[in-house]
Amino acid sequence: MPVETCPIRRNETQPGGLARYGQLVGGEIVTGERDMEVLSPATEAAFAIVPDATRGELARAIAAAGAAFPAWRARSFDERRACLLDFAAAILRDRDRIAEALTREQGKPLSRALSEIGNAVRAIEDICTIDMKPQLLRDTPAEKIELVYRPLGVVAGITAWNVPVILAAQKIAQALYTGNTMVLKPSPYTPVATLLLGEASLGILPPGVLNIVSGGNELGAWLTSDPAIAKISFTGSGPTGRRVLEASASNFARVTLELGGNDAAIVLPDVDLDKVVPALFAAAFNNAGQICMAIKRLYVHADIHDEVVRRFARLADEIRLGDGMLPDSEMGPVQNRAQYEKLLALLADTRAIPDAHIVAGGVAPEGAGYFIRPTVVTGLVEGCRLVDEEPFGPILPILRFDDADDAVERANASPFGLSGSVWSADTARAAALARRLEVGTAWVNRHGGADGGIPLGGAKASGIGREHGLLGLRNYMEPQIVSVPQVAVAPC
After folding, report:
1. Which of 100, 116, 258, 390 is the catalytic position?
2. What's the pLDDT tens digit per position in 361-396?
């Protein structure tokens, strides 16, 4: 069955009340041979239908990107920047529609969805301001040597379900600004808002420069192993990241992996609790804890441990949990059933630990939806699952320490190394401790947030390479030495 070319879809309602969305391939919104439903994590009911791309449909998207590459590569940075800034403006124009889709498929409150779209637009704008000049390595009377960077070709982008619009926008901007073309695959749990980005690009980006295809895990495997793919940018879990790395070996595709984290925050006893506790709480529980760089382990000095726990428990109990489409909801559900069941199993394991004390939450309300109350746990040490693994949900262990050096050592005793933070009134001391954290990003008196101009990535099992900033953009390009004689020389 051939792919059907469709007009731009604007919430086209299908039988059963479901809206149908198409893929972006070669500058057109298209449907395909197979469909899949998208569920709302707040209701557990389907609300949309999207394509479940076949291997042939993926091949057409990759071919479209390959055909568009020579002309796009030939454009200047200024020309590509102008297209991307127009794309960002189109996203902003469609933000209400994209935000509603994001809330329905991901679960976060609508206000948070709008914020995510705003941050995605700013990321595109920030990335497009980065100067990519050649680097002069040597300039002598005999020779001039420069380090230049050239586009790689077709980039495969694969995004996760927690902040899908931000992740998609960042990967699109980096790949296209550096002269590559892209085939982007969103998570099968949250494809709709990303497909709407494809609609926003119509008439702005040349056909084939950006292609967005939706589907399940097999689509990701086909995409990463395709010999036409020159670069893979993946954000997701460690196990899937390993499979991506293995697939890339078949054709030596360049790879950037932003994987999970088990971020530690260390709180010294001299902090102002009135200011610090709300910031720590937000860094742990924003997006229902479903942020790679969220605080997953909170180390608090013994002198203030009990007071911090008391304040955290109060904040957790005050959170209004509910469907993100309701105006008074402050925290939505866990995004999907698999993650929800993992968290419930983690809570069951934690309850079985004799010294564990759940001081807030620990409850999955009855009824539809993957809701879990924000949960605070004390009495744990390293060696239990909640401390050693990344929960990726609204469950936080608060751990006691007496010595800051010991806290750093415990924080580093993890296979993960995405990010971490140190909190103290003495910023010089905190900075010295932060530099000892074995992480890609170490903050002082803050935790979380990404900036398109600042490199982002993990150490150890938390990733390979960097996204964002000059360092991240160079990960989307091939370095090349250009050596030119300054005087006439005899040919070899």
Report:
1. 258
2. 999 999 999 999 999 999 999 999 999 999 999 999
Q: From 35, 66, 38, select the one nearest 52 (Cα to Cα).
A: 35
Q: How far apart are CA 305 and CA 400, in angstroms?
A: 6
Cα torsion 92, 98, 100, 103: sign = negative
Q: What does pTM read for this prediction?
A: 0.94
Q: Please give the Cα distance from 260 to 292 (Å, whole number).
A: 6
Per-residue DSSP letter, 324: T
Q: Would you call 258 a catalytic residue per the annotation?
A: yes
- Spatial CA neighbour of 393 closest among 368, 371, 421, 415: 371
Which sign, positive or negative, has the C-alpha torsion 47, 49, 53, 54?
A: positive
Q: 392-409 in b/e burial notation, b at 16+ Cβ within 10 A?
A: bbbbbbbbbbeebeebbe
Concatenate the DSSP letters of all residues of 224-242 into one string. HH-TTEEEEEEES-HHHHH
pLDDT under 70 in the chain at which residues? 1-16, 489-492
Range list of β-strands (E), 261-412: 264-267, 297-301, 357-360, 375-378, 395-401
How far is the C-alpha of 227 from the C-alpha of 214, rounded, in Å?
20
Domains annotated for the chain, with CATH where assigned, are 5-259+462-480 (3.40.605.10), 264-444 (3.40.309.10)
- 71-74: list long-range contacts, CB under 8 Å, 24+ apart: 71/206, 72/176, 72/179, 72/180, 72/181, 72/206, 72/209, 73/150, 73/151, 73/179, 73/180
Q: Are 230 and 476 in contact (CB under 8 A)?
A: no
Alpha helix segments (H runs only) across 371-476:
385-388, 404-412, 427-435, 469-474
**Nearest alpha carbon to residue 128 among 390, 468, 480, 373:** 468
In DSSP terms, 421 is beta-bridged to: 265, 443
| d(C-alpha 473, C-alpha 455), whole Å | 9
From 297, 293, 290, 309, select the one nearest 371 (Cα to Cα).
290
